[in-house]
Structure formats: C-alpha cells, structure tokens
Amino acid sequence: MSEIPMSSVAVFSPQNRDWKSVVSESFRDLDALLEFCEIDGLRTEIQANQEFTFRVTRYFASLIEKGNALDPLLLQVLPDAYELQMVDGYSEDAVGDRLSMPLPGLIHKYHGRVLLTLTGACAIHCRYCFRRHYPYSESNTDYCVNSEVVKYLSRHTEVNEVILSGGDPLMLSDQKLANLVTSLNQVPHIRSLRIHSRVLSVLPERVTQGLINTLHQFRGRVVFVTHINHPKEISEPNQTAFHLLSQQGYRLFNQSVLLKRVNDSPQTLAELSNKLFESHIIPYYLHRLDKVQGAAHFDLTAEESCRIYKQLRNRLPGYLLPAMVEELPGRASKTPVLCD
Ligand SMILES: *Cc1c(COP(=O)(O)O)cnc(C)c1O
Ligand code: SF4
C-alpha cells in the first residue's frame, strides 16, 4: 500500500484504497454480479448491446438486496433483451446533441453555459442511459492540449458556466482535471464549474484529498450534480463523501431519471428527496426518460409520470421537490413537464 500517493486515497476511507484500483475491481460480468447478489434463475445469456458493456462498481453492487431479482438498483444495470428491440419514436440521438457541437466534445445548446464531454468512461453502465449511442470516439478531445476550447470560451463572453458531463468527468485523473482547471482559469468570465457525476454516489472512493486540492485551484465556484435515482443508493460511505464536499463549501444538487419499476412511486421519490437533503444535496431535476433506442422498457407515459409527480408534489415541501423536465431537441432549455 505504501506506493500509493496519499492524495489519491479516499479521504474518509478507513482502508486507504486508491480509487483506480477500486475501479479495476468492478463487476464486468453479469454472472459474477448475480452470484455476488445471490440471485439465480435470471437469464444471463442475454446479448445486450455489445457497444454498451456491463459495468458495476463493488460499492453499488453491495447496495443491491441479496436474492432480490427485482431490486431497483439491480434493474438499473441489468442488461435486457428489450434493449435490442427497435421501438418507434426512440432514436440514437434523442436530445439532438450532435447538432449543437461547435467543437468536438463541446455542446453549446443553452444560453450562458456549455457542456464538455471529456471522456466516454463511466464507473457504472446504466441501461437507460441516453449516452449509450454517443459517438465518444469522434468527440473526445484532450482538453489538456486543446486551445480551441479556450478560444471558443474566450470569444463567447456570455458563457459563464462550464459543465463537465460525460461519460463521467470524475473518471479523469486529477492531473487531467488540473489541466482543465488551468485552462478555465484563463477565461475570466467563466465563474462556475459544474460537475455532473454518477461517480460521486457509485464510487465514493473517488472523493480524495487530491480531487479536492485540484478543484480548489479553480478561481470560481464549483458545483456538483449527483445522479441518484433511488434512496437505497445512499448509504454511509457516499453520505460521508457528500458531507465532506459540503464541508469544503461546495454546493450539491441531484438529478434523477424517472424509471419504470425503479422509482416510479411517489413514496420512493419522496424518501429519496428527504435522504438527499439529509446528505447535503438539494433535489434539482427529475428527468423524464430521453427517448433513446434500447431504453423504452424504462419509459412511463406522460399520464403516468404526471400522476406520480402530482402525488409527490402533495407530499413534499417546495424545497424538496425536483422540477420534472424533459429534454426535447431544439429547445433553449430543459422543458418543464407541466402537470395540471
Ligand atoms: C442539461 C444541459 C445543460 C444544463 O442545463 P441546466 O438547466 O443549467 O441544468 C447544459 N447544456 C446541455 C447541452 C444540457 O443538456
Ligand atoms: S453517463 Fe451517467 S447515466 Fe449514463 S451510463 Fe454513465 S453513469 Fe450511467
């Protein structure tokens, strides 16, 4: 263990584990996960989309209830033969991102903020994800050397926030993130760096002193947006990580996706909001599923979504109610789903 630099070790981890070695121990094979979860009787020969492989962190797997083939966390990562069915109305670029990419990996759709996709890598592969068909190999750019991005941002003085998305930006090394921070620090009107990451909740070991030191180098404010869909995704290790980030002065928000059989009940979503709040996270968005090919089996109708959302609204104070939105191509913002 002594060869691991302390800064790459989770600050709260009693085991002093290096996050990259934790990633390398992830499940990459459904059978192994099912065995770990003590679930038999599921068809495991399913040949889901080969481009979108199987991947689950040890931590996320540990939160799956043993023996429960319908566990809401398991269902998010379980490949399904439905993924291969072509369903009308579902496409490969459901949100029209490929049309708003002035530079590879830089999406500029909304006023005042741009989204950078720095990597296609994720710590977990969520079967409903709209990025499953994303042409990462065409769009990845090495931002450490890319002065085009800095030039673009410098020209666009109306942009004051850079959002790191992915893939998962926290799969990048601290060194790569440090290079990015150095680039952003050259553009005075960028006041906010927002990090959208599922790693925060599924790989809490990533929250290291090195990460915090790196982000402290940014001149402006840093905002985190976690991606948690179910209250059972929160337990002590990631709560400790959220607490730590909050203690450092960072604001945390959460976005969820409304998913059939996973979190399609007002009770579950209300419990999620409360648990997020106890973990220093403000519920931000509840997304309706993007109409991406291969994910239709997670979708709910507009009527079902509104029925759930209205009941949720009746259960929660306004500050715990996420805004239900959908992402429609060609719009200037996320589109609120108005349920009246
Ligand atoms: C969702 C998204 C954003 C961020 O939208 P907010 O409403 O600010 O959270 C920015 N750019 C793109 C391309 C997006 O899809
Ligand atoms: S981008 Fe987010 S939702 Fe999609 S597979 Fe990666 S972690 Fe899951």
Descriptive report:
- There is one protein chain.
- This protein is α/β, with parallel strands linked by helices.
- It has one domain: Aldolase class I (TIM Barrel), CATH 3.20.20.70.
- Helices cover 29% and strands 14% of the residues.
- It is built from twelve helices and nine strands.
- It has a nine-stranded mixed beta sheet with strand order 1-2-3-4-5-6-7-8-9.
- A hairpin with a 2-residue loop joins strand 1 and strand 2 (113-117).
- Helix 7 (174-184) runs parallel beside helix 9 and helix 11 packs across helix 12.
- The longest helix has 14 residues, at 302-315.
- The radius of gyration is 20 Å and the shape is globular.
- The protein starts with 18 loop residues before the first helix and ends with a strand.
- The mean pLDDT is 90.
Question: What attributes characterize this protein structure?
Answer:
340 residues, alpha/beta, TIM Barrel, 14% strand, binds pyridoxal-5'-phosphate, binds iron/sulfur cluster
